[in-house]
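does this look right to u?? iron/sulfur cluster version
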Amino acid sequence: MVICSSHDSGISKALDRAIAGHRLSPKEIRHLYEAPQDELAAAANDMRMRCTDPQVATYSIGGNIDYTNVCAVACRFCAFYRAKNQNGAFTLAIDEIVRRVGQLKSQGGGDVLLQGGINPDLSFEWYLDLLRSLKKNYPDMHIDAFSPEEILGMERLTGRDAPDILGDLKDAGLDGMPGAAAEILVDEVRARIAPTRIRTADWFRIIDAAMALHLHNPWVGMVINFGETLDQRVAHLTALRDQQDRAMHRYGSSFIAYKVWPARLEHTRLSAASPQAREEEIVKEYLRDVAVGRLALDNVDNHRAVWRTMGFTVAGRALQSGANDLCGTGSINAIDACIEAAGKKVPDSGTTIIADVVACIEEAGFRAALRDPYYNIIKYSNCRSEYGDGATT
Ligand code: SF4
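got this back:
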């Protein structure tokens, strides 16, 4: 089926090949960025319908807990971190983290994501104690935690390598590790936006170690709007696709989902160097990358729409542009810091937000389904029957 009305044969060929289920070359992925948005979204939606249940979009009730914002890496794009003695610096006590997980569980949450800065005052034993305490109190709670950056920090702390460290963390209760700290996996970009951040080779080395251990990988991401070129985004996507192939082939492991979101650089040290685009431009780029991601990452089944930073209206459009899942419902302190830095209101948290999530999915034309961390359906939801007419809290 040829759906492209464009006269550029490279664009129409790339769209046609994607729709026909062929793997796209980097050059073809680059062509997608030039495609008209409605045709790109239609092709991505077509692929999403083939990869996942065409009637359903999923959501989860999960929570994010940032255990410390003290960080020695000091990325230039980060509005979240604080130096050790700086105003606003915090490190949660293990008891407090256990209490918050209990609160999440009482709200129906089944999984939690723990992340934090690279805090030199935390020992490796602290991380093990944290996981053991959580599993002791809530054995059924699924725990995803840390990023390749945090694992690199533990390598430097202990002098041990990632497979050993991840093995110990897994024994202590770690269920999975997200593909966080990726941004754009091109060192030229990383050196500019975060000179001391984990480099591309280390990121893949540590992710590969986690996949070899069959740790769950809830998502892998791409963060755009750092002033990177489109070719650099293509390089990022194809590197993720290669890693997915490798892990599936070698270990039978995979990134379970992919998501893209735009960096918010206001009030960060990058704001002067990277003047931010207007909101309409950010939305346009975000939706384009949702669709490109679906077509480029043909080996990742689930693609997430982010509502927390983009809002429900845009997230609903993302669900019509290749995404099949709305990101979780919990509070995301690090992301909230970026939202606040951009001068926006941080959305409410808690169970009441679920009504908004379900309504967003239904308004986008899908049946909403609550899922577990592995994308198994727990139950189908209906906004009207569960939350009443017009219930969007
Ligand atoms: S992004 Fe992570 S590693 Fe970088 S400064 Fe912020 S908390 Fe630290």
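The first helix runs from residue 9 to 19. idk if thats expected tbh
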